[in-house]
């Protein structure tokens, strides 16, 4: 599943289409596409793993889910996984194997933009309040909770927990106050590191524990375990990460 930084990079690649008129719509997304025809793409907004194409009376929400992808000016033949394609005078973009929904504009007003770890509106105090309200939640689940850390995915989760020395099955309520603040801070810090490394095509070179077998600190074999309510893959070191 693409994480928040990858969605921001996608937004950057689509920016040239803002202010342009849609001249052709295609794809097999299950909704009436006629409203998109002839509309001006006013803005592109992202919230965590979601992208919003904003038009005058509605917006199109794109979620790439687990295996979604996109391309710009690259499609050469029909594809059954094509959910939505928008053609403009200066090019086209395509979304594959994803969720696409048309929503009223007032939906944007309902979004808690302060929960997006990569947003200028990010509010760490609000994140701390939400975490303290769920003391029995495992930290591995907390980091993947999009209501708290919108944009954080499994890679960021694993790397953040290694950075701060916390085992993924630790309970939020057992973390000392200083460690809880460190968790919140590093969720944002690592997301920006992810963004820069992804932009430079060197992200995987910087992974310390995600998909790795040996701890880079002590050399001990890493634990690979499916943790939390979502049973997502966790990679961690029992020696250098404390279970709270």
From TrEMBL:
Domain Formamidopyrimidine-DNA glycosylase catalytic: 2-91
InterPro entries xref list: FPG_cat, FPG_N, H2TH_FPG, Ribosomal_uS13-like_H2TH
The entry's keywords: DNA damage, DNA repair, DNA-binding, Endonuclease, Glycosidase, Hydrolase, Lyase, Multifunctional enzyme, Nuclease
Short name of one Pfam family: Fapy_DNA_glyco
Signal sequence coordinates: none
Catalysed reactions listed for this entry: Hydrolysis of DNA containing ring-opened 7-methylguanine residues, releasing 2,6-diamino-4-hydroxy-5-(N-methyl)formamidopyrimidine
Any single GO BP term: base-excision repair
PANTHER family: FORMAMIDOPYRIMIDINE-DNA GLYCOSYLASE
Family: Belongs to the FPG family.
Designated name of the protein: Endonuclease
Native organism: Chryseobacterium daecheongense
Taxonomic lineage: Bacteria, Pseudomonadati, Bacteroidota, Flavobacteriia, Flavobacteriales
């Amino acid at each position: 599943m693409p994480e928040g930084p990858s969605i921001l990079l996608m937004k950057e690649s689509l920016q040239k289409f803002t202010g342009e008129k849609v001249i052709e719509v295609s794809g097999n997304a299950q909704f009436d596409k006629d409203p998109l025809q002839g509309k001006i793409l006013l803005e592109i907004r992202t919230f965590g793993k979601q992208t919003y194409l904003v038009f005058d009376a509605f917006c199109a929400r794109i979620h790439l889910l687990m295996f979604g992808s996109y391309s710009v000016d690259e499609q050469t033949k029909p594809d059954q996984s094509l959910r939505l394609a928008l053609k403009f005078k200066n090019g086209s973009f395509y979304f594959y194997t994803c969720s696409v929904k048309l929503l009223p504009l007032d939906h944007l007003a309902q979004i808690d933009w302060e929960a997006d770890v990569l947003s200028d509106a990010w509010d760490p105090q609000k994140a701390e309040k939400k975490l303290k309200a769920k003391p029995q939640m495992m930290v591995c689940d907390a980091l993947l909770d999009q209501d708290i850390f919108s944009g954080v995915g499994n890679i960021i989760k694993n790397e953040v927990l290694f950075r701060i020395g916390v085992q993924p099955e630790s309970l939020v309520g057992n973390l000392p106050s200083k460690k809880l603040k460190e968790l919140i801070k590093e969720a944002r810090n690592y997301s920006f590191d992810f963004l820069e490394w992804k932009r430079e095509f060197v992200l995987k070179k910087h992974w310390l524990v995600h998909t790795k077998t040996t701890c880079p600190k002590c050399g001990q074999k890493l634990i690979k375990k499916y943790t939390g309510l979502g049973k997502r893959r966790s990679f961690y070191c029992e020696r250098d990460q404390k279970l709270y």
